[in-house]
Write a structure and sequence with these properties.
By secondary structure, the protein is mostly helical. The chain is about 75% helix and about 0% strand.
């Protein structure tokens, strides 16, 4: 049986000490939540943030290419390949979110835009690979690998421009 609010010692302590502690707790949560927003105040921190997001995306594309190759060579089952590609789509979502929430200085705005475009291209290629794994695409493994290679090359180009 769950104790009532009156019987719970923590609830009683919070109520007795008034709402000051509760307000402080809420304020601390709000401050911590907003502190995690990605705002880059310098070119170097923007460069690091863009580089980090793009390196994650490049890794996801490379992993997706490996999955396609292994499935094509019958060294992996379709359900395992599907799970692996779904994981990489999650990585690309995280990478995209990291880039989209970044507020860089003006000189890093163009590389940021190019990075978001490159991550979008990578996401399209990995989603196409997942469709192929599930029999929902008429593309060949070679076409998918070419698209993944192109996406990785686009990411590498942006990384080179950022100076990574």
């Amino acid at each position: 049986m769950r104790p009532s609010r009156d019987e719970h010692p923590v609830a009683l302590a919070l109520l007795r000490r008034g709402s000051l502690r509760l307000r402080a707790l809420v304020l601390m949560i709000v401050v911590l939540a907003t502190a995690s927003c990605a705002t880059a105040t310098s070119s170097s921190s923007a460069q690091e943030s863009i580089t980090s997001g793009l390196e994650e995306a490049r890794s996801a594309v490379a992993t997706a290419a490996l999955v396609v190759t292994l499935l094509e060579d019958d060294r992996m089952t379709a359900p395992v390949a599907d799970t692996g590609l779904l994981d990489q789509i999650g990585v690309l979502e995280d990478s995209s979110a990291a880039l989209m929430t970044l507020v860089p200085p003006a000189e890093m705005a163009t590389p940021l835009q190019q990075g978001m475009t490159a991550v979008g291209t990578a996401t399209d290629a990995v989603v196409a690979a997942r469709l192929w794994v599930n029999g929902e695409s008429g593309a060949s493994a070679a076409e998918l690998l070419e698209a993944l290679e192109g996406a990785e090359s686009e990411i590498d180009d942006v990384l080179a421009e950022v100076g990574a």
